[in-house]
Specification:
nine-stranded parallel sheet; 19% helix; globular; 818 residues; alpha+beta
């Protein structure tokens, strides 16, 4: 931020301020007072390929063309750049693009086909302009600046941008509080935030990426710096937005829009998308700290099957281990884990186990012995091993930033894989340490050969742990897709695992927080996210749990989880009518699995976020910057969760277009608000007109039944709409060799006819042969149906006037006439 001492004291953490004051007041040193140093006028420019180096006589700035829409900026305070390495961005240059460089009287201009980066000669201000309309999207308010870090070496680095009077900001990962970040200040330092509250910060993850929306146009900034970092969105000065860090380089990517969707998709081209999960991972999961002994686990499994409530996974928390030693079993609780896991699998349940990073100091414990012998554990600056207390007692911790350690750790899962464990949950990997909170700053890390203290590696520790878990499982499972979960992470962690929002609380406020967090994570490039349904701590009443199940039905990751000192909370725990309502929504999840899976493919292949807040759908509507309850899952289903206790109705805003009430088929017009009744068994859902929503029959677990036919729900529209159905083997990586089926349905209607066209790509052929159609909302009486010019006479109208008929799955054109 800016120069005055009072401001610095407000924005820099207490520890840093105390360190600075101690040095400034030390009479025996020659240390000069700390001052910010700003870039001064540009004196020289050199060009190397797609890199442009600007110097002011001391400092240097590199501006690098990454693609037509992405430009990277780096600052070297005294002209020496750090090694170019990033855990978030595996490959910087995306594709060859045309660009040009010009020197004009007042500034230098570097232009791609889409955007122009200008560097003002007189004050080194950097700006980015849309070439189409010459709109300035982002520009410096002050030149980039830095301070010497007396305690640790290196620099505090700062960037300050202008902030429009009505500019709004979104993203930044799992931050709690309102969706819109405007007027708030944040810190990124992965933290075990048990029972966190509204606006509490920092939390579990560091995603230093945000989207700005100003005058109906969007852009993104990704500040790729793993040190403790900060963002201020007009809180200190309403006309400025700032980001800065306690060390490392000032390195950021400008990502062009002009739509939010464009920004997020381009950010995903930098940091990657989530690989396709095994299809069972999209089912319902049941977890608790902890289900043990074996008898209890089997009782939970029987509870689902006897009540006909679908479930795909049961979790084992830390109590399955021998004294909380990772990769071991408590044989008194689980005398024969291989047999138990096989019996669960025979009944359709996958087993997911927790693994933490803390390894108990015990020379009789094989994992500790291997790590010690191979020097795999983190050390402090005095060369003692980093030790701290977590669940097993005194522990040492692997350095997951060392590739050799990651390979070793990944191979440790062999026994778990051999006995049938299907998924792994990495917890406590902020890293969390009892008492101290986390590692001391002086812990040393390999950082893939680029070296660094814990100040540099803290925010990537959890990401590198789940990376080693994912890579190890992928190798051991032999072409089966791993399912991994991580509590902590950094930008790019979506390449290795899904997340949940952490240790939440059984309150209505946390239901609201979780709804916003999952949307925010999706906008921040981490789409496979969910909450602990019902709240981890505390006691939900039956209404709250039921409303949470309803929201969880449309969370990408659907898992109920609770602490051991709370009452059990399975879907049947509260009796009727809650059991039946919860069953209905979990069954809805399984009915919609082909749609949910297709949306996941659109994310993986094309970079689309899975959950899309209203502002992403209509950023031109300024009021949507403050609407945060509703979202779409994909682009076809609008979800309007009930977040208030005892609510008999709620207001729903529908985006432009026509929308069908999922439950009643009533057609409502968008760009307006509607009051919708919300009895306990009803969460408002709407389907975009023109959509094709595929359904499977209800199953108790994914793969329980062979699919004989797929139900296609087609919602009439008088304008053209495209929908997609993606299918593959469901658990292998064959899709990477095009062994998949991607079907595109184009729907367009008139007052007298409806046309459905299908096109196909990919090499996978599903086993079923038939589509069963449910045509909703036809405005005319049906007199003729043709499938590829062959007339269909076997059709019916049901009690809601929906047209029902069947055809072969390989049709090209269907026409329905008056």
């Amino acid at each position: 931020m800016e120069e005055n001492k009072e401001t610095i004291n407000n924005i820099i953490t207490k520890e840093i301020v105390e360190e600075q004051v101690q040095h400034l007041n030390n009479p025996v040193t020659d240390i000069k007072p700390i001052v910010k140093k700003y870039l001064s006028p540009v004196q020289s420019v050199t060009t190397v390929g797609n890199k442009f180096f600007f110097a002011d006589g001391d400092a240097k700035v590199e501006i690098r063309i990454v693609s037509d829409e992405i430009i990277r900026v780096r600052l070297a305070p005294h002209g020496v750049f750090l090694d170019d390495f990033s855990y978030a961005v595996p490959v910087v240059d995306q594709k060859v693009t045309t660009f040009k460089f010009e020197e004009l009287p007042e500034y230098y201009a570097i232009s791609t086909n889409t955007v122009t980066c200008k560097v003002r000669k007189g004050d080194f201000h950097i700006s980015f302009t849309d070439n189409l309309n010459q709109k300035v999207m982002s520009e410096d308010a002050t030149p980039m600046h830095w301070e010497e870090n007396i305690e640790f070496g290196g620099y505090y680095v700062y960037a300050t941008k202008k902030c429009g009077s009505e500019e709004n900001f979104f993203g930044l990962g799992d931050k709690s509080g309102n969706m819109n970040l405007r007027g708030r200040h944040f810190q990124n330092w992965n933290t075990d935030a048990y029972s966190f509250g509204w606006d509490q910060d920092p939390l579990y993850r560091t995603i230093p990426f945000y989207v700005g929306v100003n005058e109906q146009a969007a852009y993104g900034i990704f500040f790729d710096n793993t040190f403790r970092s900060y963002f201020d969105f007009g809180r200190e000065d309403n006309s400025k937005t700032s980001f800065w860090a306690d060390g490392g380089e000032l390195q950021y990517y400008y990502i062009h829009g002009p739509h939010m969707m464009d920004v997020v998709k381009r950010y995903q081209t930098l940091t990657g998308t989530h690989p396709m999960p095994p299809k069972w991972a999209l089912g319902y999961h049941q977890c608790r700290w902890s289900y043990y002994p074996e008898k209890k686990v089997k009782e939970i499994a029987e509870g689902f099957r006897s009540r006909n409530i679908p479930c795909d996974a049961i979790y084992l928390d830390i109590d399955y281990m021998d004294g909380y030693r990772c990769f071991t079993w408590n044989k008194s609780h689980f005398p024969d884990p291989k047999r138990m896991i096989k019996e669960l699998a025979n009944d359709g349940f996958k087993t997911v186990v927790m693994i933490d990073p803390g390894i108990k100091v015990d020379d009789n414990y094989w994992v500790f012995k291997e790590g010690k012998e191979n020097n795999y554990f983190c050390r402090r600056s005095d060369d003692y091993f980093m030790e701290g207390h977590v669940w097993p007692g005194r522990c040492q911790f692997p350095d997951f930033t060392n590739p050799n350690v990651r390979e070793w750790w990944g191979n440790l899962y062999k026994e778990l894989v051999d006995i049938g464990v299907a998924g792994v949950w990495n917890d406590m990997n902020e890293p969390a340490v009892f008492g101290s909170g986390t590692f001391p700053n002086d812990v040393r890390h390999n950082y893939d050969g680029y070296r660094g203290s814990h100040r540099k590696a803290h925010n990537v520790y959890g990401m590198q742990m789940v990376r080693s878990t994912y890579d190890g499982l992928k190798k051991l499972m032999r072409n089966k897709r791993p399912f991994t979960i991580t509590r902590a992470g950094y930008s790019g962690m979506q390449r290795y695992g899904c997340v949940w929002t952490g240790d939440n609380v059984a309150t209505w406020e946390h239901l609201k927080i979780g709804n916003i967090q999952c949307q925010r994570m999706s906008v921040s490039g981490v789409p496979f996210c969910g909450t602990d349904i019902g709240g981890f701590s505390g006691e939900p009443d039956p209404e709250l749990f039921t409303r949470w199940i309803q929201l969880g039905t449309f969370s990408p990751f659907m898992r109920a989880h609770s602490a051991g000192d709370t009452a059990e909370r399975e879907p049947w725990s509260f009796g009727e009518p809650y059991t039946s309502i919860n069953r209905t929504y979990i069954e809805l999840r399984y009915r919609l699995l082909p749609y949910l899976y297709s949306v996941f493919w659109e994310h993986h292949r094309y970079g689309f976020p899975i959950l899309r807040p209203l502002v992403m759908l209509e950023q031109e509507n300024i009021s949507n910057g403050y609407r945060q309850d509703e979202f779409t899952f994909g682009d076809k289903i609008l979800v309007c969760p009930v977040l208030e206790q005892g609510a008999a109705s709620r207001m729903v805003y529908l985006p432009k277009g026509k929308w069908y009430n999922f439950w009643t088929h009533e057609v409502l017009t968008g760009e307006s608000e509607h009051s919708i009744a919300t009895p306990l068994d009803h969460m408002p859902l709407f389907v975009r007109a023109g959509s094709v929503i595929p359904e499977y029959p209800v199953m108790q677990y994914v793969g329980e039944k062979d699919i004989d036919e797929v139900l296609l729900n087609v919602y009439f529209s008088d304008y053209e709409v495209n929908s997609f159905l993606y299918e593959d083997h469901g658990d292998t990586f064959a899709y990477e060799q095009d062994i998949y089926s991607e079907k595109k349905f184009s729907v367009k209607g008139t007052q007298y006819a409806l046309t459905i066209e299908q096109s196909r790509s990919g090499l996978y052929t599903p086993n079923y042969e038939l589509y069963n159609y449910n045509i909703v909302g036809l405005p005319f009486n049906v007199n003729k149906i043709t499938v590829d010019d062959h007339e269909i006479t076997d059709y019916t109208l049901d009690e809601r006037n929906c047209l029902r008929f069947k055809s072969n799955k390989n049709f090209t054109t269907i026409k329905i006439y008056n």
